[in-house]
């Protein structure tokens, strides 16, 4: 059996919630992409990371059904685990830093997969949403297979304070009906709104964001080692 760590990323202040992440620290034990995809499907996390060079932070990210050039909570969690100043992903180099209890990465919105950012009037409406069917057409008019049903539902809890209530529905049809915490979606929402955000997602996870110069965005949260 391939050894792997399990983290929770974007935990609440009490250390609860957060999105589970699998990290294979020694990616050389499973170098073949097909083997990595098979393990990611077997583990069943929303994402699994294979570390190909722990000193340089070279990583390879998989969902249960596909390989991703970039993903938010895998990068936040893996940067914390490896304690490196950057990660090298297929999308580009992701800056990383630790600030007290928070692990931060710096990434570009164009690296995130496209998705529908759907605003609701109240946080209660977001709470009451049912999981939408996979393959829903995007509000931008993109083909359904282009957005793969990804919907990020959000509402202001306190607009002056930048507090947001959100839920994420990946719509991939791979058994992950809802993501507990989604850094890439928070990245896109921050770009759209152009301001720092304090997002409560899923059952109670917390994601912090902050726009940076030249189109970069920082995403931060608490990380816990489960096992």
Explain what the structure shows.
This protein has 227 residues and is of the alpha+beta class. It has 5 helices and 14 strands. It has helices at residues 33-43, 72-82, 123-127, 144-147, 183-193, and strands spanning 5-11, 19-24, 48-53, 58-62, 67-68, 86-88, 93-99, 102-107, 116-119, 151-158, 163-169, 197-201, 205-211, 217-225. It has 2 domains: 5-93, Diaminopimelate Epimerase, Chain A, domain 1; 110-222, Diaminopimelate Epimerase, Chain A, domain 1. It is 19% helix and 36% strand. Strands 1, 2, 3, 4, 5, 6, 7, 8, 9, 10, 11, 12, 13 and 14 form a 14-stranded mixed β-sheet that branches. Helix 2 packs across helix 5. A hairpin with a 4-residue loop joins strand 6 (86-88) and strand 7. Residues 137-147 have low confidence and may be disordered.
Main structural class: alpha+beta
- pLDDT averaged residue by residue: 92
- The helical percent reads 10-25%
**The CATH class of the largest domain:** Alpha Beta
Number of strands: 14
According to CATH, what is the topology of the largest domain?
Diaminopimelate Epimerase, Chain A, domain 1
Largest sheet: 14 strands, mixed
User: Which range does the strand content fall in?
Assistant: 35-45%
Rounded radius of gyration (Å): 16 Å
The helix tally amounts to 5
Terminus-to-terminus distance: 15 Å
Instruction: Catalogue the unreliable spans.
Output: 137-147
Helix-strand string: EEHEEEHEEEEHHEEHEEE
CATH superfamily of the largest domain: Diaminopimelate Epimerase, Chain A, domain 1
Shape: globular
Reported CATH architecture of the largest domain: Roll
